[in-house]
Amino acid sequence: MSAVTVAPAGRPHALSNTLTIARRNLLHIKATPEQLVEMSIQPIMFLVLFVYVFGGAIAGSSAAYLQFALPGILVQAVSFLPFTTALALNTDFQRGVIDRFRSLPIARSAVISGRIAADGVRILWSILIITGFSMILGFRFAGGAAGAFGSVLLVLAWGLVMCWPMAFIGITARSPESVNTWGFMIILPLTFASSAFANPDTMPGWLQAIVKANPVTSIIDASRGLMLGGPVAEPLTDAIIWMAVILAIFVPLAIRRYRRRI
Amino acid sequence: MTNAAIEAEGLVRTFGKVRALDGIDLVAREGTVFGLLGPNGAGKTTAIRVLSTLLRPDAGRAVVGGYDVVRDPERVRGLIGLTGQYAAVDELLSGQDNLFMIGRLLGWRKSDAKARATELLEAFDLTDAATKYVKSYSGGMRRRLDLAASLVGRPRFLYLDEPTTGLDPRSRIELWGMIRNLVAEGTTVLLTTQYLEEADRLADEIVVIDHGRVIAAGTPQQLKMRVGGQVLQAQPADAADLAATEEILASFGEGENTPYSDGQLVSIRINDRSALGQAVRRLDEAGIVVDDLSLRRPSLDEVFLAVTGHVAEEDVLEGEDAPEGERRSA
After folding, report:
1. pTM of structure
2. For labelling, which of A126, A147, B94, B160 has a CA lying 20 to 30 Å from the CA of A28?
3. Residue A7 domain-assigned (yes or no)
4. For residue A212, is it within any domain?
5. Does the beta carbon of A104 lie under 8 angstroms from any beta carbon of chain B?
């Protein structure tokens, strides 16, 4: 056995393993260019449809609605992106790829962290595409550069946080179909029953209660405040608390499931 | 502790009510091929998963290369290579990227990972397809890549879980050749198979398992001896003569030995060596033309029948190795 090919002794290197697996996941985009459509064209299509179909009716003009709705549309798009986390982990389990990773002397956490790191890159890509395109359509960051930067960071953080419950679903679900079922059942109402597309004050009382309790509303309100220069402190505090709570629940759950899944 | 390479004692693993492993003992010596033979659902995959640290046993212990699979799983992982039932390669990467990635995961420099990938692609006749996506590979190519992937770290112990299931005969024979080469270089191979022929061709020692228990153990020769005697088989040219052929062969059987037929070939276990000559005369007298009439040592199929009381193929308990069904859907 030559010295070159013997794995280094001691603990496997978690960071380097994570980067290797993240690279592998990102290389998948090259093999399936449809993913680029999902990450780029789809959110833009959604943005254009919403702004120009509903804008006039809801806000009086498309331009005014774009200003109001962009933070919501952005957060909604980003909330759906972690589906990839769930679907890809589920597929890796089905195909036996995770068995191979787990039979290697590498950091066990790297499979999940490498997945989420890659998804972070995808999320950031989508955020830049959506905000960039909306600026072409006439969106203006009224909150200044600091607000713009802060909102991008916040939305990226939200996307990364949502990767964890989706990782849990991906590891738990028996098939990609059930990932889709569960994922949509959770993400769709969360993003629509929020302040994303309309002012909650116009909604019936029972829905207002749901919307106000919805973590997505806090994320959107905080992003809106940062992007447009409105009130930030309260929604941002709520947003951070929500993200911490979701992580506290789903990081251990996902890791536990990952260790247990046979 | 003996110098056994892989040793398991009393391994038990249950899934709900199913005892997938019900007290398995095995000892595989360094540098040999150890065959784990049994029908679908016998517990073979569960045994491999315990020995490769993917699954904790409920009871019993297993030691690989001197390390306990429960107490020192990371050390064990540093010694083993695993090729599962389904080619666990990444379809959305090229063959080269698959192997390169594993080298990188093992902590090697890029140049070393690349060199090892090139070397393995060459050895497994995949150089031409190196930069193509694995999704475009044939079944045989995927298996070869899967085997190459399990060899990146030059494991001392190679676990092959039904490596040739679903392969065409030519790819199967190719893969057997590759496995023999690895053993010649000193690798210890633990092989599971439901193909008796495969165990017969490759394994130095075999344990036969059924319903999570070892029901027979020994070299292929010893196992065949256990059945004893020889097998007389005749294949009538005209299928209409099958019944008459069976009747004639039945007269050579002693005790419980009765003829069995697969619809073409009639076989019976015998102890009397003069039976072949007599069979020629009797068949001729009866006017039965035969395409094949021969005397041979019992095959492992017959060993299996003798020790389990049932034919291997009939006992397909789908999904017992993976009770939650996730891996069976592939």
Report:
1. 0.81
2. B160
3. no
4. yes
5. yes
Q: In sequence order, which residues have a C-beta less than 8 Å from that of residue B322 and are 6 or more positions away?
A: A262, B45, B328
Burial class (CB in 10 A: 0-12, 13-18, 19+), A183: buried
Domain region containing A45: 14-23+32-260
Q: Are A5 and B112 within 8 A, CB to CB?
A: yes
- With a CB-CB cutoff of 8 Å, which residues 223-242 of chain A face chain B? none
Distance CA B184, CA B147 (A): 16
ipTM for the predicted complex:
0.86
In a domain, A119, yes or no: yes
* Chain B residues whose beta carbon lies within 8 Å of the beta carbon of residue A100: 82, 84, 88-89, 102, 149-150
Contact call for B86 and A95, based on CB within 8 A: yes
φ/ψ (deg, to 5) at A94: -60, -40
Which chain A residues have a beta carbon less than 8 Å from that of B326?
93-94, 174, 262
Query: A5 and B81 in contact by Cβ < 8 A?
Result: no
Residue A203 included in any domain: yes
Total domain count for chain A? 1
Instruction: Check B106 against A106: CB less than 8 A apart.
Output: yes
In order along its 262 residues, chain A shows pLDDT tens digits of 443 444 444 455 889 999 999 999 999 999 999 888 888 898 899 999 999 999 999 889 999 999 999 999 999 999 999 999 999 999 999 888 999 999 999 988 899 999 999 999 999 999 999 999 999 999 999 999 999 999 999 999 999 999 999 999 999 999 999 999 999 999 999 999 999 998 999 999 999 999 999 999 999 999 999 999 989 999 999 999 999 999 999 999 999 999 887 6
> Whose CA is closest to B86, among B134, B157, B142, B158?
B142
